[in-house]
Amino acid sequence: MRAASRLQDALAAKTPVWGGWVVAPTILGPEEFTSSGYDFVGFDVQHGYLGDADVSLMLRRLEYLPIATVVRLPTPEPAPIGRVLDAGADGVIIAMVESAGQAAAAVAATRYAPSGVRSYGPLRTSMGTDPAALQERVSVFAMVETARGLATIDEICAVDGLSGVYVGPADLAISMGHGPADAWTHHDVRDAMARIHHTVTSAGLVSGVHAGTGTLGRTAAQLGFQMITLVSESQALRHGAAAHLTEARGAPAAAPDRQGQY
To answer: Where is the HpcH/HpaI aldolase/citrate lyase domain (predicted)?
Structure first.
């Protein structure tokens, strides 16, 4: 029997699954996402200002709260992946995956020998100590966000042990010769995202995407994506702060924040 995974449970129970994003050390951010009804929170070790120790402390704080956790890392290097899993993350998202080999390396980093290269060292005894159960609870997502990744999406989805593919619209748009703001409006990029989603779901995997706003999250859900990140804690704070100031001044509502589509 696998150790508990709130992420796997959420993905099995509902569509879509909504996520918040954390880019800096914070206690309040993840808890506010939880109290607001979000299904998961992602910790960004690629673009965010977070280290292993920061993530470990925040994961520990969320241990008894009803929200799933994932960590985005920049490479499939085994040691950092193993550390965040030992600290209790339900899953990892590996950025800039462009080949089946990179996806396979990411999976191997979450599996103990002989299936992979993960070193045994659980930090959260509440998850249990059985290696088979510990690796079974882990979800592994390849982040496809370039034209090269798009070209190899069939091979990536064929990697054994991969849980899903998570799309990064901004980098995908840039790699296709467009601006990051074109990610959801240019038909070439929208078609590419639709193709990724179709290929992923046809392979029986979870399709995820970084939306960046609630409005774009609704669009992503309409396209069929299941695991959808809406906003980061900094975006939510900025949006809420601006809304309160607008209310106080009696001014027209501000335009929606379209940043954070990475």
So the answer is: 31-231
